[in-house]
Amino acid sequence: MSNQSERQSWSSRLAYIMTVAGATVGFGATWRFPYLVGENGGGAYVFLFCVAMIVIGIPMILVENVIGRRMKVNAIDAFAGKANGKKIPTAWKTLGYMGLLGAFGILAYYMVLGGWVLNYIGSLIIGQLDLSTPVNVETTANFFKTHIHESPWTIIAYTALFVLVNYFILAKGIVDGIERSVKYLMPLLFVFLLVMVVRNVTLPGAAEGIAFYLMPDFSKITPQLFVFVLGQVFFALSLGFGVLITLSSYLDKNENLVKTATITGIMNTLIAVLAGFMIFPSLFSFGVPPNSGPTLVFQSLPIVFSNMWGGTIFAIIFFSLLVVAALTTSLTIYEVIITSLQEKTKMGRKKAIALTLGAIFILGNIPSVLGDNHWKDVTIMGKSIFDAFDYISGNILFILTALGSAIFVGFVLKDEAKDELGAGKTLTTIWFNYVKFVIPVIILVIFFNSL
Prior knowledge:
By secondary structure, the protein is mostly helical. The chain contains 18 helices and 2 strands. The chain has helices at residues 13-24, 27-39, 43-71, 93-126, 137-149, 152-170, 174-201, 206-214, 223-236, 243-248, 257-277, 280-285, 296-306, 311-345, 349-370, 385-413, 415-421, 425-450; strands spanning 82-83, 86-87. The protein has a two-stranded antiparallel ribbon. The longest helix has 35 residues, at 311-345. It is globular.
């Protein structure tokens, strides 16, 4: 079953870590994290996020690393083979299929967000969104309504452009395509991020925003909020839809999994926290409310940029940062499905890429766009098509797949999981028992809280 002899491996630990960091640093860190911080008490949320990364983030990264590297195959067959001398029941592959379905769901709306961002960049460049003079919330809300929700064919065109960029990179393969691209994209992301942070923390009145962001109001820390934050860590780390399983299947057997998982968790947290520094100081500097929810970066930040010297340039840099972050994530989510198609059907890579991207575009991206306008009366579970893809993949499929993965490691792989981890005896025992007995309980609490 193993395709180990045919498979490429990452050229170095740094290449793997950069790719995993890119996979986990997408809209989760640059779009979702900041608006959730704004909605949930600032520093209190940031503090809990850092705790949650240790409580569930890093242990679950290791769970998926162990599953992925053990067989060095796709995210479906990773749940097959033998464990402790016994054949693993085929039913466990259901977890792999659930992960693929979740990957489809997230890409269905994720690529559309990429189209939104490209639309903003294009509008800024041609002056359709003019930030050379101060604008107000009515202006930005009207632009969002007119150019996002009420311009479906424009958004479909921008989404198609974003999909095409992914296609050309994926067509070059794991090393020449994804790895080489991430080597350039991640440093570019850091440069954009640092430029925005330096600009915003030096604005007049920025100290108030920094205080809101860093000083936790412990009265706002509740068990309910902590459970909510634990769920965000799943989204932030791309847990539960096969990304880390797929990426670690290309990992050398001599690689230190504990070290790479820890670095991944730290990098994800660092970039998410830095993203807050480029947003909250500027919001407070210009008196813009921080709790505007999912539209924070699309409707609130343009107001900030319009009041800033060189605002249009900084707005283009900011939205370019979002595109880069989205691209490093979308490439790796696509790869989950592409690798599975290649290895399960023996399909050629370019054909698998075209089929994957084309099917998601037609069955996912277009309906997500039309769900805001022409198909706005179509609802799934009481939600728009766009929101339904988000909810079903993020609140149901990912969490159940992660729960099954933890149970698979603790009750099926057992000693094989310990051997694959390859850490010291004490650390391995602590991690294994924590994954076997504690993590499933935490995930079940997250699951019932999210319903």
